[in-house]
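Notes from the pairing session

We agreed to fold both candidates in a single pass and log them together. This is the raw record for the first candidate, unedited. Please don't reformat it; downstream parsing expects exactly this layout.

Candidate A
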Amino acid sequence: MPLSKSDIKSVCVFCGSSFGNDPSYRQAALDLGQVLAGAGLRLVYGGGGVGLMGETARAVHDAGGKVLGIMPQFLRSREIVYDDVETRMVTNMHERKMMMFEESDAFIVLPGGVGTLEEVIELMSWRRLDLHKKPVIFLNVNGFWDPFFALIDHTLATEFTPTSFRNTYHSVDTVEGVLPAIAGMATVDVDIDTRRVV
């Protein structure tokens, strides 16, 4: 059955637990949170109350939107749980990522570090393997993701990655472009078989 824009109810946002050194990253997180809440979309995220994670969650919550945070117990003190919203505590990082996947219909990637990269690369790989067809959208604030896209291009040019990998994600430069990009990537969904990725 085709996955349409109306089928998108919950959106997972991957992003940093710090703000980075460019104020536009924080502004993008704030603006994105307001857009998600305005569209009636629930935010699913890593559960932290700090950095871009916390900024996005607070923006959705302050605008009257729904938020679900998912955090491993061992990170509770390090990332400071945002307790004003629903939070589910899990045992490890793998469980966190799987629950974020299962609770979300689409994914948005804000600027972030190695953890953000690890989360989204796994998701892109799953999409490449036809384990799911959920939209994956990079919000490329001030060209933040350009070096990452250049690395992907390099793996394509050296024939370690098939050209079809380009279909695993879409990139937009503005917050306003996020929801149309999600709608554009929506397609037939394939439920992930968790036995194939554990």
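Candidate B (folded immediately after A)
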Amino acid sequence: MSENRREFFRVIFNQALNGKVSVYGGNFLPVEIYDVSAGGLVFSSVLNIPLGESVRCSFEILDSAFMLEGSIVRKATGVDVVKCGVEFSVDQGTSSELFKQLNHYQIRNRKSFLTD
């Protein structure tokens, strides 16, 4: 049985978020983000980014913009896309703000689910 080593709760989106990722300090390229936690995220891209590579991730949650640095810690290659897991390298304040926004997002989704 595999052990879940995640330190933070993870928000899995019903529909992928549009985001951007910069690799090698270059231009931002569009990606689809499938889930986010205060410690990292999972996205898909046509780029095959090497494990350990530093990236900058840009996305919005509830009108709050985030620009977070991290590194590729996991990847799975598909037919046309590569799914990458990123572990963030952020300060406590940024992590707390992301955690707060993810909580608000979860609460809002649960409320809308219960009223539908």
